[in-house]
Design a protein that fits this description.
CATH class of the largest domain: Alpha Beta
Number of helices: 19
Number of strands: 22
Distance between the termini: 66 Å
Oligomer: single chain
Strand order of the largest sheet: 5-4-3-6-2-1-7-8
Bound molecules: adenosine-5'-diphosphate, magnesium ion
Radius of gyration: 28 Å
Largest sheet: 8 strands, mixed
CATH superfamily of the largest domain: Histidine kinase-like ATPase, C-terminal domain
Helix content: 25-40%
Strand content: 15-25%
Structural class: alpha+beta
CATH topology of the largest domain: Heat Shock Protein 90
Number of domains: 4
Length: 582
């Protein structure tokens, strides 16, 4: 029998490795930007077409490469940044694995030109799927330009896997934001589909954050500055009023490298205890400087995961530093750190008189009474799901008592079972089906506003908005756009009692959902996002009519079991389930 184990040819193994380093256009951008930074550039221009699917180009004025360097830069494990294994532990540069260019070039078409400082002659190389197809002398300015076109052109499965332009552009802007915030000493220009989205000159960290996120963030920035033996912290924490329903404003940098860390997020979140509404997350731009030998950044090839040797101490340092800075700026009711933490009361309770806890039940309420409360009609638009038949209808009719507990759940009992419904998820489902229906049937009911809502969009919000404006229209939004001022003149009926500004802000800024979304289309994605941000939240008290209405609407939905994001909406306990508990 012939031997069957063989070493993969370099082009195949590079393509496989490429999957680790290059997941999507934004990962290419990240690698190219990190290389430009490592090359000590002071000006970087980024040019993107079709959310990076067709073009990602990075032009820098850094130290450049020689012709030979350019040739070897595409070879796997070719790097100028470390020489031996010890260097890994004292690494200061952003890249060091020497994998990125090899990986990117194996799955795209690259044109690279470069010229070294103080050397007049530059060089140009064109590479297709890892092979050099042309090269020549080229007179260019000092620095490097790398143009990555048609990403995954030779791996169709991966190319098809890319999400909509809207989603991919979000990832790209997220990468850009992280780099631009942590490199305020560099001038950046960002051009998307021939339009300049950012021009950021060299500026202070505070100004950089304002240039990116817009003037409205200015007065919400609370500086944080803490020196300890374990780590130094600096940056800004955002006031609780600026908290968002997503984690999109959470930026953590360790030794100036953007990282993700659940435990740091948790540490900061718990410092905000009692200051945030349910379902809201704090924002921050936190820079942690720590001895590089006390961390490991090499846990994953895309280098965003990080491990700390001393994470417990770091947790408490961050936690108290954030409390401290919230305290100094008087946003927190807790100023005394020596105080017994079990005595802490939440902010919302400080202002109100204590109440005896109660479960509200309206014993006179008759669930079979025909619903005709006008105010309620405003809150839930009944029309959208009016005619949908459902198996659950009979079940609902059986319910005799409906009440709310913890301002979060609707509980209902029938003769044979008890059902506990998550009000927020239920309402998401109801709205989601309603939105989809309006979009597909173009049967939107919209409400003209007496006073148009005016929203100043930041440049990045504007480019996101341009990608979903037709979905906005199909839902019943009417608007005019004057430069970056969005004037909304009509809103869909379902939304007329909501803070439309907050919802739009939320949709345009939200990152987490985009990562998780497996949506088939823009419309579906948009309906999900909109239903999530405009739904009744946990913590909202509902009157008995509203509770009843929510239950009825839910069970008229096509899929009452799962929220648009696939979370379980309710649980049922049968009589025997309950008996078994005892
Ligand atoms: P790494 O950054 O891990 O060393 P890369 O594959 O990203 O590996 O890059 C390989 C090498 O190419 C780098 O070590 C560097 O010497 C060179 N290089 C890449 N991009 C640039 C650039 N923009 N300017 C100067 N040199 C660069
Ligand atoms: Mg690199």
């Amino acid at each position: 029998m012939p031997d069957i184990v063989k070493i993969l040819p370099a082009d195949v193994s590079n393509k496989i490795a490429a999957g680790e380093v290059v997941q999507r256009p934004s990962s290419v951008l990240k690698e190219l930007l990190e290389n430009s930074i490592d090359a000590k550039s002071s000006k970087i221009t980024i040019i993107i077409k079709n959310a990076g699917k067709n073009l990602i180009q990075v032009i820098d004025d850094g130290q450049g490469m020689s012709k030979n360097d350019m040739h070897s830069s595409f070879i796997k494990h070719a790097t100028s940044k470390i020489n031996n294994i010890d260097d890994i532990f004292s690494i200061n540069s952003m890249g060091f694995r020497g994998e990125a260019l090899a990986a990117i070039s194996s799955v795209s078409m690259i044109e690279m030109s470069s010229s070294k400082i103080n050397e007049n002659d530059g060089y140009y190389i064109e590479i297709n799927g890892g092979d050099i197809i042309s090269e020549k002398e080229l007179n260019i300015n000092e620095g490097t330009s790398i143009k990555v076109q048609n990403l995954f052109f030779n791996v169709p499965a991966r190319r098809n896997f890319l999400k909509s332009d809207f989603v991919e552009l979000k990832h790209i802007i997220n990468v850009f934001n992280n780099i631009a915030i942590s490199h305020n000493e560099i001038e950046f220009t960002f051009i998307n589909n021939d339009e300049e989205i950012f021009y950021l000159k060299k500026e202070s960290l505070k100004k950089r954050i304002i240039s990116i996120f817009g003037e409205k963030i200015r007065e919400n920035l609370i500086p944080i500055d803490e020196d300890t033996q374990i780590a130094n912290l600096h940056g800004f924490i955002l006031k609780p009023e600026f908290a968002k329903k997503s984690r999109s404003n959470q930026y953590i940098f360790v030794n100036n490298r953007s990282v993700k860390s659940q435990f740091i997020n948790h540490s900061i979140f718990s410092s905000f205890d009692g200051l945030l509404r349910d379902g809201y997350y704090p924002g921050y731009f936190l820079f942690i400087n720590i001895d590089p030998s006390k961390i490991d950044v090499n846990v994953h090839p895309n280098k965003t995961e990080i491990k700390f040797d001393d994470d417990q101490n770091l947790y408490s340092i961050i936690n108290s530093a954030v409390k401290h800075c919230l305290g100094i700026y008087q946003v927190s009711p807790v100023l005394d750190f020596e105080k017994d933490p079990s005595m802490d009361i939440s902010y919302s309770q400080v202002k109100s008189d204590p109440k005896i806890p109660s479960v509200e039940i309206d014993s006179d309420f008759n669930p079979f009474q025909i619903f005709n409360d006008e105010k309620l009609g405003d809150l839930f638009s009944e029309k959208s799901t009016e005619n949908i038949e459902s198996d659950f209808e009979n079940t609902v009719k059986e319910f005799t008592k409906i009440f709310q507990i913890f301002n979060k759940f609707i509980v209902s009992a029938s003769t044979s079972s008890l059902i506990i419904i998550n009000q927020n998820l239920a309402h998401q489902r109801i709205l989601y089906e309603g939105f989809l229906k309006s979009m597909f049937e173009s049967s939107t009911d919209s409400q003209k506003l007496v006073f148009p809502i005016q929203i100043n969009l930041s440049k990045q919000q504007l480019s996101m908005f341009n990608k979903i404006d037709s979905e906005f229209k199909s839902l019943g939004f009417q608007f005019e756009l004057e430069e970056n001022l969005l004037k909304i003149t009509s809103v869909p009926n379902q939304l007329k009692n909501n803070s439309v500004e907050e919802i739009i802000d939320d949709i345009l800024d939200n990152d987490n959902d985009f990562n998780e979304s497996n949506s088939l289309s823009h419309s579906d994605f948009f309906a999900k996002a909109l239903s999530k941000s405009s739904s009744i939240k946990s913590g909202e008290k509902l009157n008995p009519n509203e509770q009843e209405f929510l239950v009825n609407q839910l069970f008229s939905c096509k899929e009452p079991n799962l929220s648009p994001y696939n979370k379980q909406i309710f649980i049922t306990l049968s009589k025997s389930d309950i008996e078994n508990i005892f």
